[in-house]
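Thread title: Can someone regenerate the structure for this chain?

I was given the following input by a collaborator and told the matching structure tokens would be attached. They weren't. Posting the sequence so someone can regenerate them.
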Amino acid sequence: MPKKVYIAGAGGMLGSDVYKLFSSTCEVRASDIDVNEDWLVYGDVRHKEAIYKDIKTFNPDLIINLAALTDLEECEEKEETAHSTNYMGARNLGDIAQGLDVPYIYISTAGIFDGTKELYTEDDIPHPTSVYAVTKYKGECYVLDNIPKAYVFRAGWMMGGGKKDKKFIGKILKQIKEGATELFAVADKQGTPTYTLDFAECMYSVLKTNTPYGLYNMVCGGRVSRLDVAKAIVDELGLNIPVIEVSSNYFSEDYFAPRPACEAMENTKLNALGKNTMRDWKICLKDYLDEK
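Best answer:
Regenerated them for you:
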């Protein structure tokens, strides 16, 4: 297990859980372009020379890259920024890790698939359909092809992050808090929720048990629709708010980026190695809502 860990892009949903877990046993330096916590320093993965100086000075045993532009619509509108963050950022930190001869972790996404299958394993060939997916897949490919001491962990529909939750569950909870009398959700998009806390703990366990380097799906158990998730939230909170099924076209003005019909994954490799500690999504949702 490493003693010194550098975490880039730690200011987002996943960053707090990863920082909290690793800092409990390791010396951690965490950076982000948005310095929104007192334990963060400024760091931009797009600028290799500057972030190299910070990493080199800290001299870590492990580099974790959480930095990403994940807003699909913003990626469509700012393709160059998406490319420099999601691909070049992955490449920059991977090269730095290799130069320092330390392990590297890159976080990828289930969104790189085209949605034509009902469930994806690590053996399925991605066919990205959006700018976000293309840039994340390019980052994944570079790391796997060029950085021998690297883990690539693919996440699904991320949930967690508390006040930083800007994804689907965070948006539903915001509507409820603001007094929504009905909720709308799609049933034509399928995926696998991924709880940030479980993700961080599973990642930590993989490192601690010297699991072989490579590509791993790392999602909670279950294949669900957005509608299923919204209904589960309402039920768990004991509310009587109706959840109305709509098609993706209902939201097409705001959410115009291409999204696969299905991006559900299973943790085939982790299961085979006996290293899958990710829990069922409903259990994780309950834990998350209890925390909030």
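The chain is about 40% helix and 20% strand.
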